[in-house]
Amino acid sequence: MADQDINFEMNINAVDQREMFDKSKIIARRRMPTLELIHERFSRAVRLTLFNMIRAPIEVQMHLPVVKSYDNFVNEFPERTNINIVGIRPLRGVGCWIVDPGVVYIAIDNMFGGEGRLPPKLGLREYTATELRIIRRLVDALLSEYEKAWKAVYEIKFDFMRQETNFGFAKITSPSEMVLHSKFTIEINGRPGDVDLCIPFWVLEPVKSILYNNMQGFASEPDEHWANLLSDQVHEAPVTAVAVLARKQMLLGEVASLSVGEIIPIEIMDPITVYVDGLPVIRGQYGVKNGRYSVKIQTIQHPAEFLKSPLESARLGPSMMRGAEQGELYEQFSDVAPNISDGASAQSLSPENLAKPAVSDTINSLADTLVAKDETGSTDVNQTGDTNG
């Protein structure tokens, strides 16, 4: 009597009250975050696989997995449909993949030269041998991608067993048992069709804790197709290689006094350095081969080494060193500067010394000299203490 009063006050009948504590109903209401991540990854991967097979625009939409009774699952499909029975290793039991006839006919139409724009003529007829072979190819592609999607979480393998067209001959569990129903909608040329996966829930018992775990993500395998494509694109990227044959260190006063026609004596370095996009990658010997100036490679430094140990001697960062004429800044500058013509010691070209008043005044004076030289067109320098060109 007390129970009836409670039920009356809470407005809950006895059937609903039993369902509140029914374990199967509780399971059906729970979400599986890890399984959803697996299915999202599967949807992305199978889209590319089917596109390469069918050569038509493909879109794959994932639906949330649902736990229901096997009897309810069977009642959602027509009397005759395509049922592919698969074994699941190392889990014990079998599952089934169901391919919508609409997906089959549109895929066949595209694979044999059509555009898949005409609506398929669906009827209760037997599949031909060609259609069964196409279905098998589709199922094999689905199984392969689904195994890869699971691999980061739990290694499972699907073994194709047989095809059926009637659930009476494809009984994978008893009607009252709970099953996991996963649905994927595949749209080919704008025409949608469903692919359904059914696995008895007791088969997933060893991995239930993983499926219900609230994983934010999991380690994924590298995409080999994307990696190969990226590698090909990187190897085809153009770069500039500059071989620096000589380097001359001069005073700013000497540079300011130069005029057209003068000769600057240089010595070719041995070995020389070849800069690839500003990075000193190759060292070799300069010479001539087949009438062309060439460099015989002696040592090569892999570009990856520059990422491990940044160039401490560089005056500018690598991103700013794209000019061929600036490659030499990657080499370490000598700490010893040549003597000035009047016998005084040269100032080191370090940032600290550049900030000193004496060096700053010298630079300003030379700048004024260059301006006056440009205006008069004369090669004479009238500033006291400066040399004549």
Could you characterize the architecture of this molecule?
The structure is a single chain. By secondary structure, this protein is α+β, with helices and mostly antiparallel strands. The chain folds into 2 domains: 31-231, CheC-like (Chemotaxis protein chec); 239-344, SpoA-like (Surface presentation of antigens (SPOA), Roll). It is built from 13 helices and 11 strands. The strands form 2 sheets. Strands 1, 2, 3, 4, 5, 6 and 7 form a 7-stranded antiparallel β-sheet that branches. A 4-stranded antiparallel β-sheet has the order 8-9-10-11, with no helix packed on it. Strand 3 (82-89) and strand 4 form a beta hairpin. The longest helix is centred in the middle third of the chain and has 23 residues, at 129-151. The protein is elongated and about 100 Å long.
Question: Summed up, what is this model?
Answer:
The protein is an alpha+beta fold and 389 residues long. It has helices at residues 2-10, 14-20, 23-29, 33-54, 70-75, 101-111, 129-151, 208-211, 224-235, 252-256, 304-308, 351-354, 357-376; strands at 58-62, 66-69, 82-89, 94-99, 157-164, 178-188, 191-200, 241-244, 272-276, 279-289, 292-300. It is elongated and about 100 Å long.
